[in-house]
Amino acid sequence: MRALVVCLGNICRSPIGEGLLKHHAALTGLPLTVDSAGTSGWHQGDLPDERSIAVMKHHGHDIRDQRSRALTQEDLYLFDFILVMDEQNEQDVMALGHGTARVARFVPGQDVPDPYFGGTNGFETVYTMVDQAAQNWIKEWHTTKL
């Protein structure tokens, strides 16, 4: 199975989501390929935001191997799931057209707030929200055997 995590710039929220999905999939033995992308492409090739790297490191995860990339129309067909961080991301993904991927909110029914202009507390909030949701996605995918 393949999952793509999407936010605006692919430097704050989606790298955290990518890292946590990989982590929880590995813990449970779920074969899962995970990537992340941004709807903007503004940070193409950049490392995750230093605050995302720091919050993940604080919790024992290293995401320094990730690089930002822009979402493409091809992604709608390459992935089984595209997990978006907020309503605007969802609208931007849907504006690319309809593919075979199921598009859903990373945290069902909620927007994950963009911590870019906030302090470090915003990144911890994102971590907490995304960690729990990542665990829930892995449980769901194990149950449905996708």
Distance between the termini: 7 Å
Radius of gyration: 14 Å
What is the β-strand count?
Answer: 4
CATH architecture: 3-Layer(aba) Sandwich
Helix content: 40-55%
Strand order of the largest sheet: 2-1-3-4
Classified in CATH, the superfamily is Response regulator
CATH topology: Rossmann fold
Global outline: globular
Determine the structural class based on helices, strands and strand pairing.
alpha/beta
The CATH C-level name is Alpha Beta
Number of domains: 1
Strand content: 5-15%
Biggest sheet: strands, sense, closure?
4 strands, parallel
Mean pLDDT, nearest integer? 95
What does this structure look like?
With 146 residues, this protein is of the alpha/beta class. It has one domain (2-144): Response regulator (Rossmann fold). 43% of the residues lie in helices and 14% in strands. The chain has helices spanning 13-28, 50-58, 75-78, 87-95, 120-144; strands spanning 2-7, 33-38, 81-84, 102-105. It has a 4-stranded parallel sheet, with helices on both faces. Helix 1 packs across helix 5 (120-144) and helix 2 crosses helix 5. 42% of the residues are buried. The mean pLDDT is 95.
